[in-house]
Amino acid sequence: MATMNAKVVWQDNVHFIGTSHSGHDVQIDGEKQHGASPMELILLGLGGCASYDVVTILKKSRQVVHDVRCEMTAKRADAVPAVYTDIHLHFVVTGENIKESQVAKAIELSAEKYCSASRMLSAGGVNITHDFEIIAG
């Protein structure tokens, strides 16, 4: 079992600086003045994890990819804790002769097998859906 370490250091008010296991700093701010909120970071983490998988899988399947964007829409519960209830990931894949079947397969593999963030959120009851579009270029 792998162990990761990170730290979050209070700056002022509800502003913190988080330092990741790899040594990168992230601004965290509950009021969103100096950085993203903790829940925004969870959403970005999911998008980053899924996008990483999609790019990696598409490249392994010899697709000529120039750009991948993941646009996320999330709904949160009205009660405290205001957890995510639904998250939709819309992938926009740009490249040359990209095959729809390869993109669909990459997204499915990410969601069902590889993306740790997706698996963790789904296990916690979050309904995660996906779709995609392909742009030639």
TrEMBL record:
Gene3D superfamilies given in the database record: 2.20.25.10, 3.30.300.20
InterPro entries to which the protein is assigned, alphabetical: KH_dom-like_a/b (IPR015946), OsmC/Ohr_fam (IPR003718), OsmC/Ohrsf (IPR036102)
Record field: transmembrane: none
NCBIfam families reported in the protein's UniProt record: PRK10738.1
Name this protein carries in UniProt: OsmC family protein
